[in-house]
Amino acid sequence: MEFTKEQLLDAQHRLADRATGHLAPMLMWGGLLLLQGDEDITAALTQCRMKDDTTWRTLWLTKSRIIYAEATKAHEQWSAYSGIDDGTGEADTLVTWARPFSEVVSLEVDRQRVYKERHYSDHHTWRAGVRLGLRDGLAVPVPLFESEPGYESRDQIEEFIRVLASRTWH
What we know:
Strand content: 35-45%
Order of helices and strands: HHEEEEEEEH
Shape: globular
Distance between the termini: 33 Å
Number of strands: 7
Structural class: alpha+beta
Strand order of the largest sheet: 1-2-3-4
């Protein structure tokens, strides 16, 4: 299957982990674009965890569906342009799916924290994660990993949660 240059550039923008600056392996792109179809992406979140191995997770929202992909590889720095098969070779695991919003049965707020901006300030920031529950029992956390997200991705995560919450019950 081939995609247009515009589709690939749009995907590239949505498949970057803001905290690390890395781009998801190209192996993930095709399935996501296929499941996106002709719909515009209204929100996107991509995150990776690079320890002894690498796990990439991405979650896209369109007007009517939720699209998710996860890929893992037993290498600690696997990404689109890492030099390790340029992210085009085999993954150890690769899952890509889409569900209509009508399959959402719950949106649970968890991992709540309140941050005080400065010790002399009265300004506080509330941050939380959510768990998206689907009819088939699958639950997807947002942020996509349980650890505290980096500063670079907090605004993106908050905006994603706002869009998800507004789309879930309409």
